[in-house]
From TrEMBL, chain A:
SMART domains: Molybdop_Fe4S4 (SM00926), NADH-G_4Fe-4S_3 (SM00929). Keywords: 2Fe-2S, 4Fe-4S, Iron, Iron-sulfur, Metal-binding, Oxidoreductase, Repeat. NCBIfam families: Fdh-alpha. One of its GO terms (cellular component) is membrane. Gene3D superfamilies: 2.40.40.20, 3.10.20.740, 3.30.70.20, 3.40.50.740, ADC-like domains, Dimethylsulfoxide Reductase, domain 2. It comes from the Bacteria. InterPro entries: 2Fe-2S_ferredoxin-like_sf, 2Fe-2S_ferredoxin-type, 4Fe4S_Fe-S-bd, 4Fe4S_Fe_S_CS, Asp_de-COase-like_dom_sf, Formate_Dh-H_N, Formate_DH_asu, MoPterin_dinucl-bd_dom. Residues 18-96 form the 2Fe-2S ferredoxin-type domain. The keyword Metal-binding applies. This is Formate dehydrogenase alpha subunit. Pfam families: Fer2_4, Fer4_7, Molybdop_Fe4S4, Molybdopterin, Molydop_binding, NADH-G_4Fe-4S_3. GO terms for molecular function: 2 iron, 2 sulfur cluster binding; 4 iron, 4 sulfur cluster binding; formate dehydrogenase (NAD+) activity; metal ion binding; molybdopterin cofactor binding; NADH dehydrogenase activity. Belongs to the complex I 75 kDa subunit family. In the C-terminal section; belongs to the prokaryotic molybdopterin-containing oxidoreductase family.
TrEMBL record, chain B:
This is Formate dehydrogenase delta subunit. InterPro entries: Formate_DH_dsu (IPR021074). It comes from Hoeflea halophila.
Length: 961, 77
């Protein structure tokens, strides 16, 4: 294994189709028009010396190192800013150029510390490389002149010197090593789009400054790492590299956080991760990253990880460590006992959207083939199950229609119920880049999210709807499009069922659906909504991106159908730049759904009632499959309370914290006789578990994740599982203990089984992924290279289906007792239940959940910034600190659910989507009042959690008497 | 699941399909419940309905005839 060296071409690739031929140092090169001379040289294998150029950002031409000579032209132009032209003859190395370059390097080095041997970037420093490349042997100016290097000069403090900024937990900024190439500033602008960095001062005074001469931590910096990656020296340096040293080998793998699915190089020293660096060839992220994937992987070695299996009789007992074999035998015995006593259907399982495709496939197989029922579900139940249902109905397939590259061809973006700058940051950066280039944005969200207005991005329309009125707003958009004649009739006639369209068009055209009529209860001004509808329908390529603000409602599935209707009616489907794009929450939630994790369908979204589909699996697995749908997660909990469901195997999910109505979840878990939790940490659900099976991290196993664009990416093992077994091995051995004849020696064999049984994965294999890097399903005989954009020539189901979307108000309404509406979401630095990110330095940004409340509502209640407040709903109450902000409208409050101490889901109710039971997290009627301490619930919860997490010391295993 | 919650969820399904074209309404409710409700939930729904359909939306009542009534086989598993 070696360190993967990515080629830096110096300037971005040109997308021109026309090519140009030129001669560089005697080599003839053919490159697309618009390519820089520097990039063309690199294509020919000639490295022109450079410092301020890197191919993640546009050429800048400041370092004067990349000069070349071009026959017939005067002077020595910079190769990074000079585009190629036909017949050009370039010389990259001449006596004149050598002298100039050496002179430039002399100036740089005269104001740079000479501590190369002890510098953290030693071996990975472009300045060092360039000094070598130009043959720098002496610095004629000496080192005693004015400089930024020395803290004291001539016995006095050096006013130009600035000490290291170590405020960011993950990287340092050492101004003394800065060469002011401005790569970091440009990366922050062009790649990340935050504009947190600038160059302050002029000439010799110039230096990089976060915000207005602030520390990194106090500036707008979001710690995405783009600047660190861009820095050619040790000025911006990962603290992990400072601590450990340079990596010696690297492996390409996939981030285990959100559904963007960024590709990273895990840069290693032995089995120790030195740093995670975004991979430029990663097709989801194109070399970019966020604070979670780039830096927040320390949880993998956190001391809280449980490394030995544990068992206990009652949840009030302390845990007892056992061997793996004992644990498997115990679970097998208990599960079989429960089935014997209460029936075959009295047990079930939950697959994890954080685990690999192969692992989720095995868990659902264990349930269907081993437990003999279909009681399997996954966390998509509580996030995107309405996407599966709604898009399946409309288009015939349960997934987003585009790849992320598609956004580069989009002219108008509608963003509904999603906050990508926090939830899907790398996609947000790609979106912002497109918006800065001129695309228009429509935001439909009760909160004024960052994208409504942030540096160099401003939404053309923000429709600040009242939580719970999505269907009314989307149907009103459809009303405008239909009644103003903005439909793409040719598209609809060709691609959709015309009579269904006519029925739908007549339905939405009813004046009750007009924006003027719905304004009263949606809160969206009619003229603003009309403007948005016109822009989307007629603004060019229109793409809809949406998140859980769409799905987590009692009408979640209806909203997804309304989105599909809009895309079809305007012809915005079936080509790059358009489409319907659900932003998936977890790294492998798409994959978990694809793999048959839902109780009603087998892998590939095929209903369990279909005898032909069952037959495929029955023959291969040698069992008879139950033809009835199984229980969904909320149904399992209901059945547990009823006494018909008594045992569960939960892989990598924390339902007690993440699922709604915590008290109900707790009651369900308490009613069960064998709760098996398979996780990295003693999570909140484990407080109610009888068996704990330690899990492995994404760094410790092989497999695949499927991201929001249906892209199957490899996850590669870079270290041995600290708990001894990869998660797929745990499920495998559990199945064997239950008497199943399973034999897999590597996850690739599981993928082969998936491909053999699931038509949309027919051509997927580890060998193909090795060759292509990644592939988007469907990948089969018809599409051997995968499918970046779906529904190109027709919908998967045949004709696109228009479905009427009648608005039905949720029964969760504000009233005198609970006058405010609570909506919940995520924050950039934390992820989901926080089990991983809370165990990293990301807590520096978000140490607790806060309640966002409008100044007007706060003042009425006598609440000041940072006050402890009680948040109460009909389900329960909790306390947390307030943040007073106009991001939320009056009447709306907002919080995150990352911290178990807050238990935001004590507040949420048991209302759910009519079609899928996806909980209505986004609307809860609440009251907020000043508080002086934790609620009784929080205190009792803490006490129970402490009690439940006791582990017997090994020497206490022998009975005392 | 409490009878109230079950009635509520079944009515939610009926409410959606009641807004659809007339010939899809009853079939839609029955098909949805057959496809997504496990047998013990359907058994419970029938237990309630056999006693009284009070509080059931009309579309739901009409759909009952087309919802698969779980037999002995598979009532719990």
């Amino acid at each position: 294994m070696a360190l993967i060296q990515e080629i830096d071409h110096g300037t971005p690739a040109s997308t021109a189709e026309k090519t140009v031929r030129l001669v560089i140092d005697g080599n003839t090169v053919e490159v697309p028009e618009g390519t820089s001379v520097m990039r063309a040289s690199m294509e020919a294998g000639i490295k022109v010396p450079k410092l301020c150029a890197t191919d993640m950002v546009d050429a800048f031409g400041s370092c004067r190192l990349c000069l070349v000579e071009i026959e017939g032209r005067n002077g020595t132009p910079a190769s990074c800013t000079t585009p190629v032209s036909e017949g050009m003859v370039v010389h990259t190395q001449t006596g004149r150029l050598k002298d100039i370059r050496r002179g430039v390097m002399e100036l740089y080095i005269s104001d740079h510390p000479l501590d190369c041997l002890t510098c953290a970037a030693n071996g990975d420093c472009e300045l060092q490389d360039m000094a070598g490349a130009v043959g720098l042997r002496d610095v004629r100016y000496g080192y005693d002149g004015e400089n930024h290097v020395k803290a004291r000069q001539n016995g006095e403090a050096n006013p130009r010197y600035m000490p290291k900024d170590e405020s960011n937990p993950y990287f340092t900024y050492d101004p003394s090593k800065c060469i002011v190439c401005s790569r970091c500033v440009r990366a922050c602008e062009e790649v990340q789009g935050t504009f947190a960095l600038t160059i302050e001062g002029r000439g010799f005074e110039s230096r990089v400054s976060p915000g207005m001469h602030e520390s990194f931590m106090n500036s707008e910096c979001v710690s995405c790492g783009a600047c660190v990656q861009a820095c050619p020296t040790a000025t911006l340096q990962e603290k992990s590299v400072i601590e450990i040293g340079q990596p010696e080998h690297s492996v390409v793998t996939t981030c285990a956080y959100c559904g963007v699915g960024c590709s990273f190089k895990a840069e290693m020293r032995g089995e120790e991760v030195v740093r995670m660096v975004p991979w430029k060839d990663g097709k989801a992220n194109r070399g970019h990253s966020c604070v979670k994937g780039r830096f927040a992987w320390g949880y993998a070695t956190h001391q809280d990880r449980i490394l030995n299996p544990m068992v206990r009789e009652k949840i009030t007992d302390p845990w007892r460590e056992v061997t793996w074999d004992e644990a498997f035998a115990h679970v097998a015995k208990e599960m079989r006992r429960i089935q014997f006593q209460y029936g075959k259907g009295a047990i079930g399982g939950i697959t994890s959207s954080r685990c690999t495709n192969e692992e989720t496939f095995l868990v659902q197989k264990l349930v269907r083939a081993g437990f003999g029922n279909n009681n399997v579900d996954t966390c998509a139940r509580v996030c995107h199950s309405p996407t599966g249902y709604g898009l399946g109905k409309a288009f015939g397939t349960s997934a987003g229609t585009q790849d992320f590259d598609s956004v580069e061809h989009t002219d108008v973006v509608i963003l509904i119920g999603a906050n990508p700058t926090d939830g899907h940051p790398v996609f947000a950066s790609r979106l912002k880049k497109r918006l800065r280039a001129g695309a228009k944005l429509i935001v439909i969200d009760p909160r004024r999210i960052d994208l409504v207005r942030s540096p160099h991005v401003e939404a053309s329309h923000h429709l600040p709807l009242k939580p719970g009125t999505n269907v009314a707003v989307l149907t009103a958009l459809a009303h405008v499009i239909v009644t103003e004649g903005l439909c793409d009739e040719a598209f609809v006639r060709e691609r959709c069922d015309w009579s269904e369209f006519e029925d739908w068009a007549a339905f939405v055209a009813d004046p009750v659906h007009s924006p003027e009529a719905t304004q009263a209860f949606t809160g969206v001004p009619a003229d603003e909504l009309r403007g948005a509808a016109r822009l989307y329908a007629r603004g060019g390529n229109g793409a809809i991106y949406y998140g859980l603000g769409v799905t987590e409602h009692s009408q979640g599935s209806t909203t997804v159908m309304a989105i599909a209707n809009l895309a079809m009616a305007t012809g915005n489907i079936g080509r790059p730049g358009v489409g319907v794009n659900p932003l998936r929450g977890q790294n492998n939630v798409q994959g978990a759904c694809d793999m048959g994790s839902f109780p009603h369908e087998l892998p590939g979204y095929r209903h369990i009632s279909g005898a032909e589909v069952r037959d495929v699996f029955e023959k291969l697995w040698g069992v008879e499959l139950n033809h009835e749908p199984g229980l969904r997660i909320p149904n399992m909990l209901d059945a547990a309370v009823d006494g018909t469901f008594r045992g569960i195997y939960i892989q990598g999910e924390d339902i007690l914290q993440s699922d709604p109505d915590t008290k109900h979840v707790k009651a369900g878990l308490e009613a069960m006789e064998c709760v098996v939790v398979h996780d990295l940490f003693l999570n909140e659900t484990a407080n109610y578990a009888h068996v704990f099976l330690p899990g492995s991290t994404f760094l410790e196993k092989d497999g695949t994740f499927t991201n929001a664009e249906r892209r199957i990416n490899r996850v590669r093992k870079v270290m041995s599982p600290k708990n001894g077994l990869a998660d797929w091995e745990v499920t495998l051995k559990l199945a064997q203990a239950m008497g199943l004849d399973w034999n897999y020696s590597h996850p690739s064999e599981i993928m082969d089984e998936i491909a053999a049984t699931t038509p949309s994965f027919a051509k997927v294999s580890y060998q193909l992924l090795e060759e292509k890097g990644s592939v988007q399903w469907p990948c089969n005989e018809a599409k051997p290279d995968g499918t970046p954009v779906m529904h190109l020539d027709g919908f998967v189901r045949g004709k696109g289906k228009f479905i009427r979307t009648e608005y039905v108000a949720t029964d969760e309404r504000s009233g005198p007792r609970f006058p405010l509406l609570l909506t919940t979401g995520r924050i950039l630095s934390q992820y989901n239940v926080g089990a991983q990110t809370r165990r990293t330095d990301n807590v520096a940004w978000h140490a607790e959940d806060r309640l966002e409340i409008h100044p007007h509502d706060a003042e009425q209640r006598g609440i000041r910034e940072g006050d402890l407040v009680k948040l109460a709903s009909r389900s329960g109450e909790t306390t947390l600190r307030s943040t007073i902000t106009e991001r939320v409208a009056p009447g709306v409050v907002y919080t995150t659910f990352h911290h178990p101490g807050t238990q935001a889901n004590v507040i949420t109710t048991d209302y759910s989507d009519w079609a899928t039971n996806c909980p209505e997290y986004k609307v809860t009627a609440v009251q907020v009042s000043p508080s002086n301490g934790p609620t009784v619930w929080q205190e009792e919860y803490d006490a129970q959690a402490t009690q439940a997490r006791r582990i017997l010391p090994l020497d206490a295993l022998e009975p005392a008497e | 699941m409490s009878p109230d919650k079950m009635r509520y969820q079944a009515n939610q399904i009926a409410t959606f399909f009641a807004s659809q074209p007339e010939d899809e309404q009853v079939e839609g409710v029955a098909d949805h419940i057959n496809k997504f409700w496990d047998p013990r939930m359907r058994a419970k729904l029938f237990e309630m309905a056999d006693e009284s359909t009070e509080g059931f939306k009309p579309t739901l009542v009409a759909a009952l005839q087309k919802i698969n009534r779980p037999g002995q086989f598979g009532s719990v598993g």
